[in-house]
Amino acid sequence: MAYERGDVVLIPFPFTDLSAAKTRPAVVINGPLYWQIRAEYLLAYVSSQISKANPELDFILVDWESAGLLKPSFMRPKIAAIDPTLVVHHVGKLSAQDLSGIDACLRQALNL
Q1: Which of 30, 45, 62, 102 is 20 to 30 A from 54 via CA?
Q2: Any domain includes 86
Q3: Is the pTM of this model over 0.85?
Q4: How far apart are CA 91 and CA 3, in angstroms?
């Protein structure tokens, strides 16, 4: 597996209606077991439009700069399965604090 859980990558993230895709950052959320069985990444959407973040559902990244992001950003639990060949660029890696916050956000959104 070239990328690990918590890595931030640029990918063509699909629109929810699948009409198109936009190259944007996303965070790898799958672990090694998923990768061993399915050679693809599970990724969660990242956006810099902080004014659109919903604090009940989205997670605002604290250490966005050290993750390689250019602007303050948030993760929305919008998930896509992407073939590894679609990764455009490795941006950086989330801090342990941000990864923990994303885990809590995903558990909340998925009722886990």
Answers
A1: 30
A2: yes
A3: yes
A4: 11
